[in-house]
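Chapter summary example.
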Amino acid sequence: MRGNVRIKIIWGFFCAVFLTVQLGVQAKEAYPEADVSPEAGLSLYAAAAVLMDGDTGRVLYGKSADTPMPMASTTKILTCILVLENVSLEETLEVSAYAAGMPKVKLNLQKGEQYTVEDLLYSLMLESHNDSAVALAEHVGKRLLEAPLSDKPAGEYTREESQEAVAAFARLMNEKAVELGCKDSWFITPNGLDATQEFILQDGTVIQKEHCTTAAELAKIMSYCVLDSPGKEDFLRITRTANHSFQANGRSFYCSNHNAFLNMMEGALSGKTGFTNKAGYCYVGALERDGRTFVVALLACGWPNHKTWKWSDTKELMKYGIDNYFYRSFDEAGTAFDETLLKPVRVLNGQTDILGGTAYTEIAVAEEEAREQEGGGLTTQDAEGLLLRADEEIRVDYSWEKTLAAPVEGGTQVGELYTGGNGSSRWTPWRR
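The structure predicted for these 432 residues follows.
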């Protein structure tokens, strides 16, 4: 996961010690979230907003960043990436009556019609068509069902069977969200239409969960879509396309990209708009400039007639990132790990040359080749630096067990050395 940007393994000869060095940006005192941040000097319309370093998942600016809220059609970035990761673009799908019955905005699919996955992905991401989202979700979700539903053409599905296939896709969405470290997101619909789900606990208690995410987690999902997913190239190609025309079922279709941000700033990579009466205007977008990737997520950024507020907020946040955050290597920042900290560790019940003596063992940082041979070191990223403001500095924290119990074998992995974060998407600035 993002956040721990450099990981090494510590090895010992006759011991097993756990050593962790966490690299973080700390703050002397927290400041309350407000419309105008004393740290950033930003004034935003959105009720919740995040500027994220896409490469590490570090939140550079947050306003109500962890508050769960409805996110409307920004949901479709996760729908799109899951379709790309699970089925081929060339596959043909059949439309169900349930998908065809989705409310506007829609492509006006008809029951029994057949379309390629690729054409409907353009419909999904350029025009934000709700019927295309459900048709795609059913196509992927039905494969997760047992026979005979998995083999039954979607055009023959009853409403209940279609909902079962969509529910299977929603489970896939929630599994991916958890995999990405999203703890406060819950997906019910593939198109982002507002929805509430009821669960009955064993004791009979009824709880409700709404379709929602947070600004920080929406930005995290977008970072995955444009940087890490095996489907990222197709995701970027589709979402950056200005328009797409195709023919199917004796009809002609034209899709135009509604992501105006693509033409607003140099380096704009991708993005997705969203709106429902409950969610308000929402947006998530990514930009790459000089090797830096910034992601902005906005929730509840106004209601009609304030459709343009999301663009002004996005530009303001992106400009703040571009003007203030620059890459600095860990060595330059004075945070290279001092291996003299690896003192000998006491081993309880260890054998010594002197009767009654105290046993100690030396530990050292393993080389990359040794880590690979032993199958250890789940290296997440091998980045050597971090985006920092001029007034920020990195602090290294470390801890390890003081004693160990014999016996253990030489060459055993004894811990992990983190030199790049705490695994969290939240980083707070240290003020000099």
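To summarize the output: The longest strand covers residues 280-289.
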